[in-house]
């Protein structure tokens, strides 16, 4: 049905929302807006014709002229039915395209002057036929892919012969955007409309093809997931029947439960989750599966977020340190300073302390007391003889039997990320083809970078910044310089006799009594007996030998109590040889008499201070200087320097200028099996040489230490405190030491300073003045 006249006419307007009607299209509409209802009623009173135009925006309730497209479809109302909810359902049939010329003023409803747009057809019928065929083929393809259009619709379209009508019918069944449908409606020329339609059909076909591919992919994925689920459930059932504890699936489930309870950073949890997924897919017999399982177990055992709470009570910590150790004032003070700063700062990087001192002075036990006073966990790592860098950083997971390094193992054993970690014997490390462990420790012991310590096995950053590291060493010079710079040195010197006596009474003897099953009153060791043990049965800077001797006393006492049924035993100094045998050392190593060519020197070793007798013998010869006693290069050079100094001063001591050409000089340092080195024996060798050449006696009560120059100057040395303790043990009365070391006297205990006379010397002349006695006839 078409409108015969092309003349403009007035029609009521019905704006449509989200909908568009083409000519020859029959459609049901629900009309509810007041203006639309009145427009419909007016049309029914006239010739049942009205103009259907689409709104550009669906959401507008009261559209203006600008909100309504200018071109629409004149439609005839075929049926009208009033519904209970005050809306009207109408059946309309599209008749002809029309364009709004102008809006007629009307308050009741929209009324417009329209211009009918008759169908324009092309003269090229063959091209139009080709376009119609292509449109039909594309529509058929669209129907097959979309499944939204019935086959009957496709059959009805096939029977249409008019190109414009075919384009309209196909467009009405496409799921395309409203603006595209409006563009087709506005295209009056049928050939141009078919071109646009083909373009839209092509686009829709591509979209549908993509949707189909995506749908198939999703379906496959879902099928795969469901298949895996069913297979896993079947596997669980089979393994349960076989008593296999549910195999990998059960193992993974158990590990995921542990992961759920683990407190750790997100990166760690994510890594563990991925590794559990990998493990689950591994066959039970796979070797790599056991490697992954071992790795997951380690990650789950590291206490990533576990911290023990510090007890910051200064007085309590001080009382614990005092009860556990006698003396050691400086290290104790440093621990209390740390606690005080922790109270003020709350978050502080753990300090890195290095306790340096001879064996047996309590370095390891002090570290344990530090942990006790802070109420932290204590872990100890012995570095003595460690040569492999992997001991510190761990092995790569690719190696068989790979494990984390000792640092991570210690954290696992402690169960917290802030223990007190003792790195024992840090000066005893070595290096070989497997790497340098000292270099690996540089990152561990650097407060600026150990918050992300990298272990080769763990492969995740481990935070060591909260660990309080304590290292121990016997000698500073064996520690690599870069490592030493990262640590705070605390020196623990040897003990005096009085300190050893206190330590034995307070700590060692009660400990050994308990270890040997003795009650406190079953064994009494008199003070004079303890002093004799210290003087005649031990010679050390620390108290380790002393503890061994006290353990021997307890054993002998326990044997007597059991075998002789004695209730208690008292040991006096006179009875000591019955328990410990003959005295090992003579108290007071100083020479019994003043001697020529023999001088007591003072040495400082890793075991503490010690006395060093230097002997010189002069015999007729050809001027040969012989040095024996397993001396190091530095000590040999000191002897050469001392001899050159004496030759330069020969006239001062009444010696002939060529005296050295007629004599052979032999310098010997006893205990030849023990290596000796260092420059501090310079003035001792020079004094022994002068004594031998001039036949003057050296005072038996004098010991000395100092480096000599060719001009006779006395240079400073190290370890004055340790050397003075050795002098006291040996029964020396006077110590000659370099003038530049006077500041070190403050470190020497008052008890030692009261017993010894310290004389600072700046030149060799002063040394000889105090050490040599009056000349004797040859």
What do you see in this structure?
It is a single chain. The protein has 778 residues and is of the alpha/beta class. The chain contains 25 helices and 27 strands. It starts with 8 loop residues before the first strand and ends with a strand. The strands form seven sheets. Strands 19-20-18-17-22-25-26 form a seven-stranded mixed β-sheet. A five-stranded mixed beta barrel has the order 1-3-4-5-6. Helix 8 (266-281) runs antiparallel to helix 9 and helix 17 packs across helix 18 (527-537). The model has no long low-confidence stretch (mean pLDDT 84).
- Helix count, per DSSP? 25
Largest sheet: 7 strands, mixed
Helix content: 40-55%
User: How many β-strand stretches?
Assistant: 27
For this structure, the quaternary state is: single chain
Using only C-alpha atoms, the radius of gyration works out to 52 Å
Strand order of the biggest β-sheet? 19-20-18-17-22-25-26
Gap from first CA to last CA: 158 Å
Q: Could you list the spans in which at least 5 consecutive residues all have pLDDT below 50?
A: none
| Overall pLDDT confidence | 84
Outline type? elongated
Residues in β-strands, percent = 15-25%
Q: Give the class from helix and strand content and strand pairing.
A: alpha/beta
């Amino acid at each position: 049905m078409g409108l015969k006249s092309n003349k403009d006419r007035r029609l009521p307007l019905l704006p449509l929302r989200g909908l568009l009607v083409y000519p020859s299209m029959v459609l049901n509409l629900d009309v509810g807006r007041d203006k639309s209802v009145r427009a419909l009623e007016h049309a029914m009173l006239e010739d049942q014709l009205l103009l259907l135009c689409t709104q550009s925006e669906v959401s507008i309730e009261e559209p203006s002229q600008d909100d309504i497209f200018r071109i629409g479809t004149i439609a005839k109302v075929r049926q009208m039915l009033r519904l209970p909810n005050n809306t009207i359902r109408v059946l309309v049939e599209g008749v002809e395209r029309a364009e709004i010329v102008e809006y007629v003023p009307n308050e009741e409803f929209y009324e417009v002057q329209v211009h009918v747009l008759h169908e324009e057809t092309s003269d090229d019928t063959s091209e139009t036929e080709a376009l119609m065929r292509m449109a039909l083929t594309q529509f058929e393809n669209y129907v097959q892919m979309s499944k939204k259009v019935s086959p009957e619709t496709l059959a009805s379209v096939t029977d249409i012969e008019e190109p414009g009508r075919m384009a309209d019918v196909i467009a009405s069944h496409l799921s395309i955007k409203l603006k595209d449908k409006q563009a087709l409606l506005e295209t009056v020329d049928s050939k141009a409309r078919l071109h646009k339609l083909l373009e839209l059909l092509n686009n829709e076909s591509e979209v549908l093809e993509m949707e189909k591919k995506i749908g198939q992919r999703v379906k496959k994925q879902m099928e795969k997931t469901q298949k895996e689920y069913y297979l896993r459930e079947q596997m669980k059932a089979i393994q349960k029947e076989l008593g296999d504890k549910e195999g990998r699936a059960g193992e993974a489930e158990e590990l995921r439960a542990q992961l759920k309870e683990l407190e750790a950073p997100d990166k760690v949890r994510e890594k563990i989750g991925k590794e559990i997924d990998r493990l689950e897919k591994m066959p039970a017999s796979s070797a790599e599966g056991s490697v992954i399982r071992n790795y997951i177990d380690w990650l789950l055992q590291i206490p990533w977020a576990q911290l023990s709470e510090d007890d910051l009570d200064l007085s309590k910590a001080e009382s614990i340190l005092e009860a556990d150790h006698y003396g050691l004032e400086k290290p104790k003070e440093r621990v209390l300073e740390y606690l005080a700063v922790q109270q003020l700062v709350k978050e502080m990087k753990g300090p890195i302390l290095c306790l340096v001192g001879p064996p047996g002075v309590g370095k390891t036990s002090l570290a344990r007391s530090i942990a006790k006073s802070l109420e932290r966990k204590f872990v100890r790592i012995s570095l003595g003889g460690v040569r492999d860098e992997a001991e510190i950083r761990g092995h790569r997971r690719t190696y068989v039997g790979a494990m984390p390094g000792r640092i991570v193992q210690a954290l696992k054993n402690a169960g917290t990320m802030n223990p007190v970690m003792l790195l024992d014997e840090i000066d005893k490390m070595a290096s070989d083809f497997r790497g340098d462990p000292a270099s690996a420790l540089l990152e561990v012991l650097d407060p600026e970078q150990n918050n992300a310590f990298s272990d080769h096995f763990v492969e995740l950053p481990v935070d060591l910044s909260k660990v309080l590291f304590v290292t121990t060493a016997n000698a500073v010079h064996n520690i690599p310089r870069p490592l030493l710079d990262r640590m705070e040195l605390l020196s623990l010197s040897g003990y005096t006799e009085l300190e050893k006596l206190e330590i034995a009474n307070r700590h060692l003897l009660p400990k050994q009594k308990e270890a040997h099953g003795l009650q406190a009153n079953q064994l009494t060791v008199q003070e004079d007996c303890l002093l004799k043990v210290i003087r005649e049965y031990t010679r050390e800077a620390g108290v380790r030998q002393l503890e061994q001797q006290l353990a021997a006393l307890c054993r002998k006492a326990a044997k007597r109590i059991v075998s002789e049924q004695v209730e208690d035993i008292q040991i006096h100094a006179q009875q000591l040889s019955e328990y410990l045998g003959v005295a090992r050392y003579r108290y007071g190593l100083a020479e019994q008499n003043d001697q020529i060519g023999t001088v007591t020197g003072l040495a400082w070793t890793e075991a503490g201070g010690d006395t060093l007798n230097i002997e010189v013998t002069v015999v007729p010869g050809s001027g040969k200087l012989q040095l024996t006693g397993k001396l190091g290069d530095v000590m040999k050079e000191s002897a050469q320097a001392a001899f050159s100094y004496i030759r330069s001063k020969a006239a001062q001591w009444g010696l002939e200028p060529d005296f050295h050409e007629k004599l052979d000089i032999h310098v010997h340092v006893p205990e030849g099996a023990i290596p000796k080195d260092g420059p501090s024996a310079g003035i001792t060798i020079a004094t022994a040489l002068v004594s031998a050449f001039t036949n003057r006696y050296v005072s038996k009560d004098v010991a000395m230490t100092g480096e000599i120059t060719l001009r006779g100057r006395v240079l400073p040395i190290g370890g004055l405190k340790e050397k003075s303790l050795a002098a006291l043990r040996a029964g020396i009365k006077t110590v000659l030491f370099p003038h530049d070391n006077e500041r070190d006297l403050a470190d020497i205990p008052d008890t030692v300073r009261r017993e010894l006379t310290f004389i600072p010397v700046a030149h060799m002349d002063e040394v000889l003045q105090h050490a040599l006695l009056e000349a004797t006839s040859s």
